[in-house]
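User: Just a sanity check before I run the rest of the batch. Below are the structure tokens for the first item. I only need the designed sequence back.
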């Protein structure tokens, strides 16, 4: 993905912790499955170009989604991690075209 020396942190939290982060940073109520906090954007991004940012995953939501999809928790957590990393690298899914590209990259 063009970032061979990229660093990131992965944080696994509960739904309660995720709901707090979702409210604080996105102004949305309740938990979500994954949040990404990119360090390559905004002031100071040039100071540490190998530091991609943080991916935060709700273990509770991931578990529920894995059960609903009849997938293993490891598989679902991996999907969420890939999704979060794509966000760190600047990808989004706000439009249909962006969502299609993200889906393609996730599958790859």
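Assistant: Here's the designed sequence for the first item:
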């Amino acid at each position: 993905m063009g970032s061979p020396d990229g660093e990131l942190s992965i944080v696994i939290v509960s739904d309660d912790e995720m709901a707090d982060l979702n409210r604080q940073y996105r102004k949305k109520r309740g938990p979500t499955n994954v949040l990404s906090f990119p360090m390559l954007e905004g002031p100071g991004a040039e100071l540490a170009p190998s530091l991609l940012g943080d991916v935060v995953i709700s273990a509770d939501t991931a578990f529920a989604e894995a059960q609903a999809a009849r997938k293993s928790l490891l598989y679902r957590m991996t999907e969420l991690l890939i999704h979060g990393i794509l966000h760190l690298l600047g990808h989004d899914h706000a439009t249909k075209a962006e969502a299609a590209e993200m889906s393609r990259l996730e599958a790859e």
